[in-house]
Design goal:
Blueprint (H helix, E strand, L loop, with lengths): L12 E2 L9 H31 L5 H27 L10 H18 L8 H33 L3 H30 E2 L2 E2 L1 H25 L8 H6 L2 H10 L1 H31 L6 H26 L1 H20 L6 H37 L4 H29 L11 H29 L4 H14 L1 E2 L2
Parallel strand pairs: 1-4
Antiparallel strand pairs: 2-3
Keywords: Membrane, Sugar transport, Transmembrane, Transmembrane helix, Transport
Protein name: Sugar transporter
GO biological process, one term: sodium ion transport
Length: 470
């Protein structure tokens, strides 16, 4: 009998569909998917605010409102699109891959349009243009990212292989982040100022790279886990929502991810102002990006053996605690040089990198737990609910970033910011993420229930419930 009242449990059929074994080709394909995603996602999260404030002349508070509205809309779009995909019949190429192919082109075009500056227009025009292009891009991002993220759970059902997929996905995002963090400031800024033409050029370059990666992801990735047709027909949104509310691992990881996104997005937005204004050197952002990405790369080979020995929950929680300590310490050290600050922050990056590397394996675990509760394989819906939480976190971070900069007195028209504004920027970049990381540690350590032992048992219990076709 199903643990969710009113649900008639159906069997899940796992079949090979002549796809061959999971291997390096799948890992590379999945890596390239997030490589493509994050060429624009990281460009937007790191530099769009400064583009809007310094080139479009939009106030930081108005940008905050835009980010808040857009991210909340994106959260709804994520769930709507995930639900839509789960109610469609898979094609011969799979359930998720075709949507990556179809929607990546309009996504990239909309991304380039965000960074097109038309000189001589009114303030109202720039504000309206920002709203339309940014919300359009966010909506189209959902149509690619939801099928991409959901696809991990159907590429393989093996927990260890899924950890590899999560690692390779994060590696793809990190590679994109490395390129944008290092090359971005060199391309986008001229004499420590944001340059409109350079932003457009950068968007075109990253757009071409992005679409190339999406096509490679489509070509190299293979979907292997297939739900029976009766499962799709019996899917009911009200039953799904009831199951989600009973899914404690999902609720915990939703909460942790939402709060983590708030911290990381806030840091990404404020770090530009921290180095540009507080330290007076925007060019050093390239070095910062390079060093912090190096810390991420150190984590990649460590993640799989540490997960095998201690578990995903365990290593992610310890890493978060380390990051919390580092950033809270940085708050009490306001007189560090840019290089000294960067060195400390890199240790913090090393800590939260463990969560970033394994978080997508957390998601596939909670998708499995949903199947365990309901008997239904609703990858797109569950992943979109998780993405919903991340978008809410981004919305809050985007809104808070703009409001926080305004509240501390940041003024884009000033060549040199006031001391109180500089102190406020330092606080936003240190104490706030420190507290955020501490809260995420508490959630992982004490609220998320799927320890290494329980995850292993879940895999066994779920396998016993499935009807396997080889």
């Amino acid at each position: 009998m199903s643990p969710v009242p009113g649900l008639e449990t159906t069997k899940i059929v796992t079949t090979n569909v002549e796809a061959g074994k999971f291997g390096l080709k799948d890992k590379l394909g999945y890596l390239l998917g997030d490589f493509g995603n994050d060429f624009f996602f990281i460009l937007v999260s790191s530099f769009l605010m400064v583009y809007y404030t310094d080139i479009f002349g939009i106030s930081a508070a108005s940008v905050g409102i835009l980010f808040l509205i857009a991210r909340l809309w994106d959260a709804v779009a994520d769930v709507t699109w995930g639900r839509f995909i789960d109610t469609r019949k898979p094609s011969k190429h799979g359930k998720f891959k075709p949507w990556i192919f179809r929607m990546s082109f309009p996504l990239v075009i909309s991304g380039v349009l965000m960074f097109v500056y038309i000189p001589g227009m009114s303030d109202g025009f720039y504000l309206a243009y920002a709203f339309v292009t940014y919300i359009l891009w966010g909506t189209l991002y959902s149509t690619v990212n939801i099928p991409y993220g959901s696809m991990a759970s159907v590429i393989t059902s093996d927990p260890v292989e899924r950890t590899s997929l999560s690692t390779f996905r994060t590696m793809g995002a990190t590679l994109a982040g490395l390129i944008i963090s290092v090359a971005g400031p060199l391309i986008l800024f001229v004499d420590n100022k944001a340059d409109a033409g350079r932003f457009t050029l950068g968007a075109i370059i990253f757009g071409v790279l992005s679409i190339s990666c999406y096509m490679a992801c489509y070509k190299l990735s293979t979907e292997r886990v297939v739900a029976s047709e009766t499962t799709v027909q019996k899917t009911n949104l009200s039953i799904t929502l009831k199951a989600i509310m009973k899914n404690r691992p999902l609720i915990s990881i939703l909460s942790g991810s939402l709060i983590f996104m708030m911290g990381s997005m806030l840091m990404g937005a404020v770090n530009v102002y921290l180095y540009k204004d507080y330290f007076g050197n925007a060019a050093i952002l390239s070095i910062v990006g390079l060093v912090q990405m190096a810390a991420m790369f150190i984590v990649f080979p460590l993640a799989k053996p540490l997960v095998s020995k201690f578990g995903k929950k365990e290593i992610a929680a310890v890493g978060m605690l380390l990051s919390a300590i580092v950033y809270i310490l940085l708050y009490f050290l306001p007189n560090l040089t840019a290089i000294q600050f960067m060195a400390f922050a890199t240790v913090g990056t090393f800590g939260y990198a463990f969560f970033s590397v394994v978080v997508w394996a957390f998601v596939t675990d909670v998708i499995d737990y949903h199947e365990y509760l309901t008997g239904l394989r609703e990858d797109g819906t569950v992943y979109s609910v998780y993405s919903f939480a991340r978008k809410v976190g981004q919305a809050i971070a985007g809104g808070l970033g703009g409001f926080a900069l305004t509240s501390v007195g940041y003024d884009a028209s000033l060549k040199v910011q006031t001391q109180s504004a500089l102190n406020g920027i330092h606080t936003i970049a240190t104490l706030v993420p420190g507290i955020v990381f501490l809260v995420v540690f508490i959630i992982l350590a004490f609220l998320y229930p799927l320890s290494k032992k329980r995850t292993t048992q879940l895999t066994k219990d779920l396998a016993s419930k499935r009807e396997i076709k080889v």
